[in-house]
Amino acid sequence: MQRTADSKTSLRIAIQKSGRLTDKTIDLLKGIGLRFDDYKRNLLVKCRNFDVELLLIRDDDIPEYVQDGVCDLGFVGANETQEKGADVTVLRGLDYGVCRLSLAVPKDGNIQSVEDFEGKSIATSYPNITQNFFKERNINADTVTISGAVEIAPRLEVADAICDLVSTGNTLKANGLQELKSILESETQLIRTNKKLSPGKKQLIDKFLQRMDGHQQAERSRYIMMNAPEEAVPRIKEIIPSLKSPTVMPLADNGMVAIHTVIPIDEFWIVMEKLKTEGATGIVILPIESMIL
Ligand code: PRP
Ligand code: ZN
Known about the structure:
The protein has helices at about 20-30, 60-65, 80-85, 125-135, 170-175, 200-220, 235-240, 270-275; strands at about 10-15, 45, 50-55, 75, 90-95, 100-105, 120-125, 140-145, 160-165, 175-185, 190-195, 220-230, 245-250, 255-265, 280-285. By secondary structure, it is of the alpha/beta class.
């Protein structure tokens, strides 16, 4: 896989073709204003309004494609990048595709603890992470590398246990397996190639990141409007952990003002209760499309 990452100006971004991360990644890209069609049927899709093309591939292949510069960026689980030991830069951690890599065993079997794995075999798509885990603990366990449907291995007597990704836990339950120990926490990451990039591509990446950050900041914030007694404004300013100072406008009613500002969503209810005690009324909350700081 040799190709210099800057042999063309449009950014090439790898995303999972079909799986847990696909829809959320597509939603994120659409959310930052990128428009492309027919991504379900084509492997390489050009974006209509941004110098980007998407390469839709198996998530397992993404870290190496980005490492080798076939793609400039990739959206992939931290689990895959770590397993492959890929030489890439993690640009952002994203809060979707959250899962864990766990050891799981047949219910009511004879493996009850990590020590019980001595001399046992484990089916997994993550042989490197799994082997390291046991090596660090001086436990001899064999791994059997399987690329899909790992959860069926114990029933087929291919292995005694498995080490696989768990998200809701439904797959394990449906296969009569029980989670014994999580060995790695994972989330989706945006990774970047470490191959040299042209100034044009670097600029495109900056532009892409600015849009992404603005979108994510907006998702975590709400625009809030309210009416309040003018004399309460200094105290309200203290309550609202606003980005900048809030907009305060006089109302026709004597002594009343309208206040507009932005608040982080996590502080929403605490802020709301405090505002009401300060006499704020007609509080309106709106979602925000994007924020450029
Ligand atoms: C993982 C894993 C399980 C499933 C677990 O597959 O291999 O099949 O998710 O999810 P659950 O706990 O919610 O049931 P993934 O989507 O990563 O697909 P892949 O292994 O084929 O890449
Ligand atoms: Zn996979």
